[in-house]
Design brief:
The chain is an alpha+beta fold. 24% of the residues lie in helices and 26% in strands. The chain has a 4-stranded antiparallel sheet, covered by helices on one side.
Length: 121
């Protein structure tokens, strides 16, 4: 959060629509992340919508090393200051810190994708 001002100096046309999926294994605490994210005074990531849910059946391999399988997922859709390693890293770090403050004790699996890119058939 201490570097959020750095992103405000970026070009407005660099803002990119993104979709971020967070899986927390068996830890349900990530469902509270959107509310906490809205409380932050920042303009790096603007949340437009979110959906929580659960994932598919048991994987065919051992997935317990990270408190998996991914039973609880959260998908955030919004606009990121830019599509860059720095911006995605800032968002990942901010979400991880919020999850830790909410009591998450397991690793999080985070996937960020540009949602303004055409999907391949």
């Amino acid at each position: 959060m201490r570097t959020r001002e750095w992103y405000e100096a970026g070009a407005p046309e660099a803002r990119t629509a993104v979709e971020v999926t967070i899986s927390s294994g068996r830890d349900e605490v990530i469902g509270q992340l959107p509310h906490r994210l809205d409380e932050l005074e920042q303009n790096v990531f603007t949340l437009r919508s979110y959906a929580s849910g659960s994932t598919s059946p048991e994987p065919p391999f051992d997935d317990t090393f990270w408190d998996g399988p991914a039973r609880h997922t959260l998908t955030l859709q919004g606009d990121l200051a830019a599509w860059s390693y720095d911006s995605v890293g800032w968002l990942a770090e901010t979400l991880a810190e919020l999850a830790a403050r909410l009591g998450a004790r397991a690793p999080l699996l985070l996937t960020a994708t540009r949602s303004d890119q055409p999907r391949l058939p």
